[in-house]
């Protein structure tokens, strides 16, 4: 893709698409002629792109640990936590079993009928993917259902690169259910099942409990694997060291993390923090 | 709202304690929201307040001038917004303490009256 040297380049997790766009509109009030290039992917895919040479001015991801694992200290000094969220099971009124499903029987509905399609995002590319695997591990313990994790992992129908793709697939009727962020489900006006705090990765008081869940992904070097430990969901933003627009990038981050950004995040189902 | 329902349905509202509790925690030590949520549980394990509620209280308290925040970078983790109490916040905390002391006396009077009546045999459980 051809890039404009003067444009503000923002690379972000797909789940942040809507709030990021709304914050740009606030920046445009001050700089109406400012060119902005927006790109998005799963957070790990975003970080790997920067590590492989992609030049951006702002990078906003769904997990600060992705910064720590892939970008700090070589490409980024530090990241700033700005929002939290929780995992939910999203669906719509046309999803098979939508009349029966609730927060007690969701796993039985998903696994009970062969024709029900449920999806997760790819844990190698997207935090929503490894958070889904963590949720399944924690659900096995929480509901005392030995083997639940393997059953859920062996029976999903679709795997997507990022969480926003799950929401789109739901809208298109390609799947019945998707493990998704609450914010995305709200932004897309979907129905959703809320999970108990013990498994939805939302509560810092349960950080030690979440840490029982571990997902293995590819490491930074070929052949190396690394473990991602369960933790409360925290979205984070940073200015890469090679940004060409550091002052402008900081202005954008000030909007995102200031009162106007907080209102936008709130309206989009995220919890500013 | 955090409400503790007793077995027989009497509600005891605790939501008015959220702001003074946060002010006290921040007065003890400047802290970020994540840490405040963890410590909030430690002060009253029976009270369940959702993390989102605490974050919203913090934002509102900052906009009202009771606390102020700055980015604090930890050695290993990310930068988080750290809150410290302002003079206005300290005054609000002292005001809350005066009100709580008044309420404490009212609660003590309530309990003494109840126990005296109970000892006199004014109540009988059917």
UniProtKB/TrEMBL annotation, chain A:
Gene3D superfamilies: Periplasmic binding protein-like II. Transmembrane segments: none annotated. GO terms for molecular function: molybdate ion binding. Signal peptide: none annotated. GO terms for biological process: molybdate ion transport. InterPro entries: ModA/WtpA (IPR050682). It comes from Desulfoscipio geothermicus DSM 3669. This is Molybdate/tungstate transport system substrate-binding protein. SUPFAM superfamilies: Periplasmic binding protein-like II (SSF53850). Belongs to the bacterial solute-binding protein 1 family. WtpA subfamily. It comes from the Bacteria.
UniProtKB/TrEMBL annotation, chain B:
Gene3D superfamilies: Winged helix-like DNA-binding domain superfamily/Winged helix DNA-binding domain. InterPro entries: Metal_resp_DNA-bind_regulator (IPR052509), Tscrpt_reg_PadR_N (IPR005149), WH-like_DNA-bd_sf (IPR036388), WH_DNA-bd_sf (IPR036390). Pfam families: PadR. Residues 22-95 form the Transcription regulator PadR N-terminal domain. The lineage of its organism: Bacteria, Bacillati, Bacillota, Clostridia, Eubacteriales. This is Transcriptional regulator PadR-like family protein.
């Amino acid at each position: 893709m051809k890039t404009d040297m003067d444009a503000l380049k923002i690379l972000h997790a797909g789940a942040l698409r809507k709030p990021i766009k709304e914050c740009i509109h606030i920046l445009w009030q001050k700089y109406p002629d400012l060119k902005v290039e927006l790109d998005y992917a799963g957070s790990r895919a975003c970080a790997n792109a920067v590590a492989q040479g992609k030049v951006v001015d702002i990078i906003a991801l769904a997990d600060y640990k992705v910064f720590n694992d892939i970008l700090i200290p070589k490409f980024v000094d530090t990241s700033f936590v700005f929002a939290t969220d929780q995992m939910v099971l999203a669906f719509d009124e046309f999803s098979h079993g939508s009349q029966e499903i609730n927060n007690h029987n969701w796993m039985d509905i998903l696994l009970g009928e062969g024709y029900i399609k449920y999806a997760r995002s790819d844990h190698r590319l997207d935090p929503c993917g490894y958070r889904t695997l963590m949720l399944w591990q924690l659900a096995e313990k929480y509901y005392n259902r030995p083997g639940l994790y393997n059953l859920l992992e062996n029976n999903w129908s679709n795997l997507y690169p990022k969480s926003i793709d799950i929401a789109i697939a739901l809208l298109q009727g390609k799947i019945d259910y998707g493990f998704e962020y609450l914010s995305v489900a709200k932004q897309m006006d979907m129905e959703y099942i809320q999970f108990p705090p013990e498994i939805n990765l939302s509560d810092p008081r349960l950080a030690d409990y979440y840490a029982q869940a571990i997902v293995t992904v590819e490491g930074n070097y070929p052949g190396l694997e690394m473990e991602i430990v369960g933790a409360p969901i925290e979205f984070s933003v940073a200015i890469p060291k090679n940004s060409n627009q550091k002052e402008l990038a900081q202005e954008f981050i000030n909007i995102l993390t200031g009162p106007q950004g907080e209102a936008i995040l709130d309206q989009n189902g995220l919890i500013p923090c | 709202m955090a409400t503790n329902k007793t077995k027989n349905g009497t509600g005891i509202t605790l939501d008015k304690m959220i702001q003074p509790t946060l002010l006290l925690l921040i007065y003890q030590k400047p802290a970020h929201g994540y840490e405040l949520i963890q410590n909030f549980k430690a002060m009253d394990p029976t009270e369940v307040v959702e993390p989102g509620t605490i974050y919203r209280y913090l934002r509102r308290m900052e906009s009202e001038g009771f606390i102020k925040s700055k980015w604090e970078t930890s050695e290993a983790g990310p930068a988080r917004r750290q809150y410290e109490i302002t003079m206005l916040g300290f005054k609000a905390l002292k005001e809350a303490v005066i009100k709580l002391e008044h309420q404490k006396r009212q609660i003590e009077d309530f309990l003494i009256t109840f126990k005296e009546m109970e000892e006199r045999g004014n109540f009988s459980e059917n």
